Amino acid sequence: MVKTAVILAAGMGERIRERTGDHPKGFLLLDGKPLIEHSILKLLDAGIESIIIGTGYEKEAYEELAVKYPEIECVYNADYETTGSMYTLYKLKDVIKEDFLLLESDLIYEKEALNIVISHPCENVILASKFTNSGDEVYIEADDNQYLINMSKDKQVLNHVSSELVGITKLANATFHKLCSYLEKTVKDFHKMHYEEALVSIAKEIAIFVQQESNIVWCEVDMEEHWQRAINFIYPLIKEKENVVQKVNRKILLNPGPATTTDTVKYAQIVEDICPREEAFSDVMEFVADALTAFVANLEDYTTVLFSGSGTAAVESILSSVIRDDALLIINNGAYGERMCKIASAYGLKFYNFISPADQAINLRLLETFIQNSKLKISHIAVVHCETSTGLLNDIESLGQLCEKHHLSLIVDAMSAFAAIPIDMKEMNISYLAASSNKNLQGMAGVSFVVANKEQVESLKNARRRNVYLNLYNQYAHFKATKQMQFTPPVQTLYALKQAIIETKWETIEGRYERYSKSWETLIEGITRLGMKHLVDRKNHSKIITSIIEPSHPNYNFYEMHDFFYERGITIYPGKVDKQKTFRVANIGNISSIDMEKFIDLLEEFLNELKEPNESEKI
Ligand SMILES: *Cc1c(COP(=O)(O)O)cnc(C)c1O
């Protein structure tokens, strides 16, 4: 185990001088404590016993810290104004005597980052993350076995970019000596060298492992924008993660929501009691509403209306509030399209049930002809984005264009697509979109919401009301005026949703869909290998949920299979297609392709037992 840490802290931090004044960057305050001190406390907590700080600019600040922490030793690089980080590191060659962790002084990171590097089996490890788009990234190029090839701030220099440098690295003492002799051998500009360059140059001789962690939360602070992001987003996220007192037993939910959540989302519900009429709670709801809008639209033209309820509440709110005297056309290619017909019929709306095959793309030409020849004037089209009953992904972009051409408004039930499949409401010409807290957002069940075009909701002001609780305009206008829902909000679910949103922002919607897609590929590869088929072909598939044709074996029974998985911590879901016998597997929530591999292994075991039901008895 490494016991020594080295922090490179000689830099002048010129790009953020306005905020730091004449203090080094490491002394920016988070909760009243310098960020370098946060780092020191985490290092000590992780078992580090000696911390060597390479100082330069305003070294006195660090020397003062060394008085408070006897574990710290400062070594001064007097040439800090003209030298690079490798030179500062070189200056430490007489005090570094063993393997060590190398850190930058302006890092804000979660404790787990240290644990990963410290407990890593390789002796030389670079911690890498997904791309942060911070504007000052060091990109990493690694080989197929995850060993370092190259690093650069300039993407063009690299053959391919695999990840981003965090600035937490474990080095063997021998590696450090190689770095030092590389610097000594370099003739030109050797004093300007950065440690990244030195690492790359010795990587040909010494294997340096790149440990890529997509979930580790961190940032570095070089500019004012970084600092704003750090205090408003990164640091709260880290605090939340570090506040989880006890891990909750993890279940793998492969049902289409509520999905597997992170422990941080679960714990975010545990807060002091609050009356939801308080301003502090309005702030939570406003944060949630704005963030949900921003995931799919711009805040000037669109708004989010929150309801207490499961997802269907949002769909019902739209249909029962926005359709006036003209007709609604519902595209029905699965159970959720069918549900919209049921709602329309219950409210006595004029509507067309446009039935389309459950496993094929909508025939847009047929649809257009239908619209042109309809007796009633159609004002709205409603469609399900990802039909959760089959996994079929409907082409909402083309439907948006069709609506534009015929001056119709498009309503999308995006329940099982929102926060995974990227959507741009303006670009796609969507007027109303319904979704909920407990699917790809990875929050708790209980919040249902409508993202709506403001102009269109405003136009409902004088519309005849068919509903009370679910009236879209009333809920919108009340929230706009008071920052309150009309009726009691699901308080704890909203706290969890706020946390889930922050985590979605950290992962990004594109990143989340990439993770989901990888799990889906693992699923499809696995079931194909086991000789099973799925209903919807790849071309029209959402990669969110998959309808799998049930095995034809006479001993097969879905409920037995369900129980087999349930006993092993995995939940699967029955099918929802009339014609074919299917069961469903969703790959949403806080799960990865590793969980999907586990599912496939167990499925193989289950199918083998089906074939030889008496085998175990014989033994
Ligand atoms: C989950 C889902 C809903 C909402 O279902 P609830 O049980 O009310 O949460 C609606 N539409 C689609 C497409 C869904 O996947």
From TrEMBL:
Reactions performed catalytically: (2-aminoethyl)phosphonate + pyruvate = phosphonoacetaldehyde + L-alanine
InterPro entries found in the cross-reference section: Aminotrans_V_dom (IPR000192), MobA-like_NTP_Trfase (IPR025877), NH2EtPonate_pyrv_transaminase (IPR012703), Nucleotide-diphossugar_trans (IPR029044), PyrdxlP-dep_Trfase (IPR015424), PyrdxlP-dep_Trfase_major (IPR015421), PyrdxlP-dep_Trfase_small (IPR015422)
Keyword set includes Transferase: yes
EC number: 2.6.1.37
Modified residues (N6-(pyridoxal phosphate)lysine): K439
Alphabetical UniProt keywords: Aminotransferase, Pyridoxal phosphate, Pyruvate, Transferase
Pfam families assigned: Aminotran_5, NTP_transf_3
Subunit structure: Homodimer.
Stated family: Belongs to the class-V pyridoxal-phosphate-dependent aminotransferase family. PhnW subfamily.
Function statement: Involved in phosphonate degradation.
PANTHER family documented for this protein: 2-AMINOETHYLPHOSPHONATE--PYRUVATE TRANSAMINASE (PTHR42778:SF1)
Protein name: 2-aminoethylphosphonate--pyruvate transaminase
Organism: Oceanobacillus chungangensis
Origin organism lineage: Bacteria, Bacillati, Bacillota, Bacilli, Bacillales
